[in-house]
Amino acid sequence: MSKPSALIWSGRMFTGLAILFWVMDGAIKLPPIKPVIDNLHGLGFGITDALARGLGLLQLACLALYVIPRTSLLGAILLTGYLGGAIAIQIRADNPLFTHILFGCYVGIITWVGLLLRDRQARIALFGAQTRSDG
């Protein structure tokens, strides 16, 4: 078995960073924490613990798919959809562009870069050709 390349290690670092974000963001929604509920209310949602918990479970389920190598592409697609909804809500709430609206883009880019750098099959599935470092 060959030694993992710098490309793969870079992908693992980006993936680790993405996973850290997704776990923290999903886990904080599971217990009824007042700042989370207040934030959802400020974004126009009704005040309910069940909504926050449901969003947290949805995130963690999509993350589980992202972490499992055979389903990582599906997980990345679902997480991207989740982020699209989050971006739309931030736009609707008229929040600042770089700190709130584009934050979902930043997380999405890190999530996808991690997957594409570490997973040759995902690169082939998306781009249809092998890259030079694929061998």
Task: Explain the overall architecture.
- With 135 residues, the chain is mainly α.
- The protein has one domain.
- Helix content is 74%, strand content 0%.
- The protein has 7 helices and no strands.
- Helix 1 (6-27) packs across helix 6 (103-118), helix 3 (49-67) packs antiparallel against helix 4 and helix 4 runs antiparallel to helix 6.
- The longest helix has 22 residues, at 6-27.
- It is elongated.
Percentage of residues in strands? under 5%
Annotation, overall tally of beta strands: 0
Can you count the helices? 7
Sheet with the most strands, sense and barrel status:
none
Any low-confidence stretches, pLDDT <50, length ≥5? Answer: none
Secondary-structure content class: mainly alpha
Write down the overall geometry: elongated
What Rg, in angstroms, do the CA atoms define? 17 Å
Count of domains? 1
- Averaged pLDDT, please? 91
- Percent of residues in helices: over 70%
Oligomer: single chain
* H-E order: HHHHHHH
Outline the fold blueprint.
Layout: H1 6-27, H2 34-42, H3 49-67, H4 72-92, H5 97-101, H6 103-118, H7 120-127
Helix pairs in contact: 1-3, 1-6, 3-4, 4-6
